[in-house]
Amino acid sequence: MAMESGTLDSGLNVTSRQLSEVSEALSCLTSAEAAMAGKNGQDVVASLLGSARECLERLLGLSYDDALLDSIFSRFCVGK
């Protein structure tokens, strides 16, 4: 899984949801780094780091929200 020019090589086996969570976490971390460099308040940096953590927790299955549950269970055919 080498990276060139900001893109991933083929052969990566992830869902669009997983890729979205990783991308969002990276975006939050990049923004947090910029906020620290720009001498923004600690509350801004902490909020961005918290958002990145939430993305990674959803990715690892440590937490979830209603949208994720709806997405997962919409694929099941129950009670027919």
Number of helices: 3
Shape: elongated
**What is the alpha-carbon Rg in Å?**
16 Å
Task: Please outline the major beta sheet.
Answer: 2 strands, antiparallel
The proportion of strand residues reads 5-15%
| Helicity level | 55-70%
Describe the fold and architecture.
The chain has one domain (14-73). The chain contains three helices and two strands; from the N terminus they run ββααα. It has helices at residues 16-37, 42-60, 66-73, and strands at residues 3-4, 7-8. Strands 1-2 form a two-stranded antiparallel sheet. Strand 1 (3-4) and strand 2 form a beta hairpin. It is elongated and about 55 Å long.
Layout of strands and helices, then pairs:
Elements: E1 3-4, E2 7-8, H1 16-37, H2 42-60, H3 66-73
Antiparallel strand pairs: 1-2
Summary, kept brief:
This protein is mainly α. It has helices at 16-37, 42-60, 66-73; strands at residues 3-4, 7-8. It has 3 helices and 2 strands, in the order ββααα.
Task: Using brief descriptors, characterize the structure shown.
80 residues, 5% strand, single chain, mainly alpha, two-stranded antiparallel ribbon
